[in-house]
Design brief:
Layout (H helix, E strand, L loop, with lengths): L2 E7 L9 H8 L4 E7 L1 H4 L6 H18 L7 E4 L2 H11 L1 E8 L5 H17 L2 E5 L14 H10 L12 E2 L28 H15 L3 H4 L6 H4 L4 H5 L5 H10 L7 H23 L12 H8 L4 H9 L5 H13 L4 H14 L8 H7 L5 H12 L12 H8 L4 H6 L19 H6 L15 H16 L2 H14 L5 H4 L1
Parallel strand pairs: 1-2, 1-4, 2-3, 2-6, 4-5
Helix pairs in contact: 11-12, 12-18, 16-18
């Protein structure tokens, strides 16, 4: 029976700067490159077809490189344990190489199960550190220094060699995978997966789009061009954060780019910061980071199914909220400020538990990354007790960041004929104006689901009274000690 190594790809779908691949190929043992489509993830409420299409596109991009060596990624469908058991029945697995996965609870439980089976079979499992995220971290002392060290360290270049690769014969594999037809075609409006496009997007940012990044990232219109648009490629590992950071450093002295590169550098740092927060306290998938908020939410939140459906489908009657949600449905992307506004609207104006919307937005975000998603969602929902409370006013946000109504008109065509400034508050139109601008009499934009100012007032009173509670403050102190370095604690609180 042939002895092999396995590189198990998860959210690291690339060939370059890939520690598990580098280590496996360095052993000179025949290596199977493996991706598993697991039913427990395919059917998980955090994911939708757009994610798996992106994954499949990423694998096909990897195969273009591997084809030069006469091999490809071996793709299986089934629960991970079943697939590894089948491989073990045909080969002797020596070592499995993968990255540590900072994922959902279901992947953590899967890994615990696999570790027990690997140990029983005498199979070594070598997990590489994911970016600058440290497993088992108790506090943030020296974390920033480690981040800089990791991001500036040498980029790994796995030496691809045909005799060191091995591809499973799909005709002889019980758990072989054939993608649905809908995965094999491009989706209009969605970014396409793969390292090739990741690098093209990165180079386009530095060569053409990036100069206005720092002043354009808040607008739902200009951000679509001026932002890096790398988030899905980073989330699915088509390019490493280290590759992006070192490319940034190479452009540091390019005239006109400095302010944008400073802003981008900060966000690359935040990327690991929030994933580290989730890694250190993964229970936030199910509960508030600040546990004192659990009782407060259960006592005060009011789930209205009709309002929740209106939010999910983009029919609340508030133009910018609906435009953002509809844009997400179609493209999988909106900028950070608009994401924060959607969460704020759900949890503050609608007074709903953050858990009511957390999987819905995960399904829509093409760049869904569990660590960033949960950390950010709770921060914007105001249930950490350590962050500034922000209640985003969708009218003000539209006036400031979509001043001509361009974004709203694109995604809410019902308001296409409405001029500014009426488009920001269309319910203020007279019946004659509504008819003139072709707005239907039963339109939600003439009668939104609630009074925004009243809901904002109630939210301010509720949130600030909670934040002043001693139990919230005590939990806040614990959170600061664990997730924030000493020099930043005063600024964060």
């Amino acid at each position: 029976m042939q002895t092999v190594n396995i590189v198990w790809f998860k959210r690291d779908l690339r060939i370059t700067d890939h520690a598990p691949l580098f280590d496996a190929l360095s052993s000179e043992r025949p290596t199977i490159l493996l991706y598993i489509f697991e039913p427990s993830l395919l059917n998980n409420l955090h994911y939708s077809e757009r994610h798996w299409r992106f994954v499949w596109q990423s694998i096909e991009c990897m195969n273009e490189t591997l084809a030069h060596h006469g091999h490809q990624v071996s793709v299986m469908q089934g629960e991970a344990l079943e697939c590894f058991q089948e491989i073990q029945s045909k080969y002797q697995i020596d070592t499995v190489y993968s990255y540590q996965e900072i994922g959902l609870n279901c992947t953590f439980e899967r890994d615990r199960l696999l570790k027990g089976w690997f140990d029983a079979q005498g199979i070594a499992w070598q997990e590489s550190q994911q970016g600058a995220v440290l497993r088992g971290l108790a506090n943030r002392e020296n974390w920033d220094k480690n981040w800089s060290l990791v991001m500036r360290s040498q980029i790994l270049k796995p030496q691809m060699c045909s005799e060191h690769l091995h591809t499973l014969d799909s005709k002889q594999v019980d758990h072989a995978f054939i993608p649905p037809k809908s995965w094999t075609s491009l989706s209009s409006g969605m970014q396409t997966g793969g390292s090739k496009l990741a690098w093209l997007t990165l180079h386009d940012f530095f060569n053409r789009r990036g100069k206005d990044y720092y002043r354009s990232l808040s607008s739902p219109i200009t951000s679509r061009n001026a932002c890096t648009r790398l988030s899905p490629y980073l989330a699915w590992g088509n390019i490493s954060l280290r590759e992006v950071y070192q490319e940034l450093l190479q452009h540091w002295n390019v005239p006109g780019f400095r302010r944008s590169l400073i802003a981008l550098s900060s966000r690359l740092h935040w990327h690991c910061h929030f994933i580290q927060k989730f890694e250190s306290e993964c229970e936030m998938e199910f509960r508030c980071t600040n546990t004192a908020y659990e009782a407060l939410l259960s006592q005060s939140c009011n789930t209205n199914p009709n309002h929740l459906l209106a939010w999910k489908t983009g029919n609340t009657g508030f133009p910018l909220v609906d435009a953002c949600m509809r844009c997400l449905h179609h493209t999988g992307y909106i900028n950070f400020r608009m994401r924060a506004m959607l969460v704020s609207f759900l949890t503050h104006h609608m007074n709903m538990d953050w858990r009511e919307g957390v999987t819905h937005l995960a399904q829509l975000f093409l760049d869904f990354e569990p660590g960033i998603h949960y950390s950010q969602f709770q921060m914007q929902a105001g249930v950490t007790g350590i962050n500034t409370i922000r209640i985003y006013n969708p009218i003000k946000q539209a006036q400031e960041h979509d001043s001509e109504g361009e974004f709203v008109k694109k995604w809410v065509p019902e308001l296409e004929q409405v001029p500014t400034p009426l488009i920001f508050e269309p319910w203020k139109m007279t019946s004659m104006e509504a008819a003139m601008y072709q707005v239907e009499q039963d339109s939600p934009y003439l009668d939104p689901i609630f009074d925004l100012n009243e809901r904002a007032r109630e939210a301010r009173e509720r949130l600030w009274s909670w934040k002043k509670r001693i139990d919230v403050k005590n939990e806040g102190a614990r959170i600061l000690a664990r997730h924030v370095r000493q020099t930043n604690k005063r600024a964060t609180s």
